[in-house]
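Appendix B, example 12.
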Amino acid sequence: MSNNGREYEEFVASLQKALFESEQWTELRNIQIEQNKKIKDNFGTLREFDLYWEYELAGITYKTVIECKDYASKVSIEKIDALLGKIRDIPDLKPIFATKTGYQSGAKAKAHNNKVELLIVREQNDTDWELDDGTSLIREVVINMHVIPAARIVSFSPSIDGNWVKENTEIDISSGNFQLNMRNDMTFIEDISKSEKYSLLQLEERLGRGTEADFGERKLTLNFDDAFLHCADMKLKMRAAEVTYFMPKPIEQPIHLDFSKELVGVIEYLGKSSKTAIFKDRIVKDWGSKI
């Protein structure tokens, strides 16, 4: 057997295994596919088949063989005759033939009359991306995402009312070296005069977004008539705040989705005139048919 023939057997086996694993019945999901299986016929002669599997369901054992032929031309009737000859003296085998290119009319008739299922198992081609009526399916999607981030506060320096701190807290501010550890999602400004309370994270949203021509670092002074700064467990009266923030430039992020790269292979069932597409993460039966 040529390397190409063995590779084709493995290709057919991999697609068939993907079909089994997509089934709801555990018995089917656990099927083991054997390559170059030798089976003894009723006369003790060993017959070799490219692929073989069996499974038991409801007390009945089902046995299947596939002959895989990686031919450049259509399969002839002689190849079907050869398969029928191999299984003639082996009872209860389900015969299947798989090739890439198709079958001659005589081979189709012979297979139909002897209940041999014919498959075309191949890699994708352009016809797989069209419906039966010629309507094109989506093969690629190109998205140019335009991300506009909100402003980012670089520094926030509040001006605290010292008299209020002395009268209402036990914080010692006499050294003039008073520090606050602030997180933008856990530090809040409560503006009593405007009846609102918002975090520094929400303040970033209020500061806006940059544009292609208008971005960079900026400074802002916030003045308050009656406001408090909530930081951790502290509540401090605040008169103003110096804010340094950065307005980011919008980000362009192209996204290219190529669904054809996810399509591993296609199985055409000639007897049922249907086609199944095997993707990396899913199975699509009746692929290309209008639902």
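The first helix runs from residue 3 to 21. DSSP finds six helices and 15 strands in the chain.
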